[in-house]
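Marked as duplicate of an earlier ticket. Keeping the data here for the record.
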Amino acid sequence: MISNQENTYLYFIYRHSTKTVFIQALISYELTITTTEGGTTIPAPGTYTYVSGATVSVTAIPNAGFSFKYWLLDSVKRTENPITVIMDSNHTLHAVFTQITYQLSITSTTGGTTNPAPGIYTYVNGTHVVITAVPNNGFSFDYWLLDGVKTTQNPITIIMNANHTLEAHFIDNIPPEISEPWQDPPANNVQPLQNVTVWVNVTDYGTGIKNVTLWYSINNGTTWTIINMTELPIPSNTWITYKATIKGYENFTWITYKIVAYDNAGNNATKDNNGYGYKYHVIPEFRTTTILSLFMLTTLIVTVLLKKKIKPKSQLH
């Protein structure tokens, strides 16, 4: 074998009779090109024959939605594209393609979650992803921040043609819930100067209860006195019980009251008997001497009536 610049030749000696003949033969090698799914090559996949020393340029062409990842040249990874192969022996060349993927990062503020749940997800290019904001009790969905841009549709559909960030924002815009209040003594049995205690249950599933107040008036709502109600340590999974005491007033006084509750987000609710207020009347108190006088007067009247009805026996003959 004799080298001749880039090409390699074989020389054969053929003897016939008295003559010697030299025959020159050019050496060639094969290049086998294959690919994974997702693309092709130039030249196209197949087996090609090249003379020894030839340089062959091969280009990987990914399909839409795919990208070229690397070559396997005789099982050795190479990343340049196009690649140049020197045909100094038989070679195999395998082009590896991969689908283009993007990441979607989902987060949420306090007050809710999302479906799918917050996290980082990988999707193939062009995938349509539907995400739903799910508020907790006491909260409402407010808006999304999609790559920093506010949008309000819920659920939202994202086309995965790039990496995206999505944040769900929730808000507590739901006021507390107030039960019907109850009092002691009852509204029809409040004595003069007797204190009246009022209880009520308040529920807030959002940011929690900030304070509860009892407003009462002795002039039908012209002016109000405000009392902070006290939270009671009564176990409950849903509500908190509050109480306040209205001081005693003179007889014949009409008391009107209502309950106002605030949560930590600034929402408030009022329980006022549909605008009429809860009312009680301080009943008159009779003094002992007054009761005795009324009793004596009643006894006298009854006695007189009886005497008029029963005549003496002498008048019957």
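See parent ticket for discussion. The two ends are 179 Å apart (CA to CA).
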